[in-house]
Design a protein that fits this description.
Blueprint (H helix, E strand, L loop, with lengths): L2 H30 L5 H10 L11 H14 L1 E4 L7 H12 L14 E5 L3 E9 L2 E9 L1 E3 L5 E4 H9 L7 H12 L16 H20 L14 H14 L1 H7 L1 H11 L12
Parallel strand pairs: 1-2, 2-6
Antiparallel strand pairs: 3-4, 5-6
Helix pairs in contact: 2-4, 3-4, 4-5, 4-6, 6-8, 8-9, 9-10
Length: about 280
């Protein structure tokens, strides 16, 4: 083969790749600019009442990201669960809350597995060189680069009750957010100009105080499960940030401010749900 055909073939391949990227970006921008239908908007407001507290300026962003999420992700029902439009909208709306005003996105997520209720999962524990496998119940799981696994009973309840400090969808998608840095370790991608030292100080001080309270059997604002490790504390702190923002700012103002900076939102200022 002469040099000219090789060059032409190379240019054709480059042109195809550029066209695909352009088409993908154009589709993405179109989805982000597309509002929900009136029926979808009503369903989201009913299933996730936290949305009714959001400032009007954020609602178009949320709806666009819900559309992008629904286009990108495939839902699979397990154990006979039929995945309905309501299931998709509830999960998508809750999943998009942590990224509603952020430039980051769940780029690698393609699959969500939904069980009717709590499900069994196998976990490995290490004792020296011996690995023990055990089965335990779970409400959700998040794997780096996907998938996310959820109990629909608990996902539904978490969306409906926006003030109890428990939300399995936000928890698992906080792990997805955390993992975008390449490691799920409680250190997410910080905002441009946000100092790591400030994040580390606020996070570690809040975590260590949380662990002390749990070990002493004292009540905690952030769910006690957050004492497991840094990544679980980050996920539970995100849940508290959305569901009990006033209390979190009062108890852990430095952590609240860091989360508000990372997510570029301030739910403490959001109003009561509109009827």
């Amino acid at each position: 083969m002469t040099l000219l055909p090789i060059l032409l073939l190379g240019l054709l391949i480059v042109a195809v790749l550029v066209f695909r990227r352009f088409s993908s970006r154009r589709k993405r921008n179109r989805l982000l600019a597309t509002p929900l239908t009136s029926d979808q908007r009503e369903a989201v407001a009913k299933l996730v009442p936290l949305v009714r507290r959001m400032p009007a300026s954020l609602l178009p962003k949320l709806e666009g990201k819900i559309n992008l999420f629904l286009d990108q992700v495939t839902f699979h029902g397990n154990h006979g669960l039929e995945v309905t439009e309501q299931i998709k909208l509830s999960i998508a709306a809750q999943a998009c809350l942590p990224v509603v005003n952020s430039p980051v996105w769940y780029e690698t997520l393609r699959t969500i597995l939904v069980y009717p209720s709590a499900f069994s999962t196998n976990r490995n524990t290490h004792d020296g060189f011996v690995v023990h496998e055990s089965e335990s119940g779970a409400l959700g799981e998040s794997w780096q680069r996907g998938p996310v696994v959820l109990s629909w009973d608990h996902a539904l309840q978490g969306g409906l009750d926006s003030t109890d400090g428990h939300n399995v969808v936000i928890h698992e998608f906080a792990h997805q957010l955390d993992s975008l840095s390449g490691h799920t370790n409680g250190v997410p991608i910080l905002r441009k100009g946000q100092a790591f030292a400030g994040w580390e100080k606020a996070m570690l001080e809040a975590f260590h105080e949380h662990v002390k309270r749990v070990e002493r059997g004292r009540p905690t604002l952030v769910d006690a499960y957050g004492a497991t490790n840094h990544q679980e504390f980050f996920a539970e702190a995100i849940v508290t940030f959305f569901e009990q923002p006033q209390a979190l700012r009062r108890e852990e103002p430095a952590l609240y401010d860091q989360l508000a900076e990372i997510l570029a939102i301030d739910p403490e200022r959001w109003t009561e749900p509109k009827r």
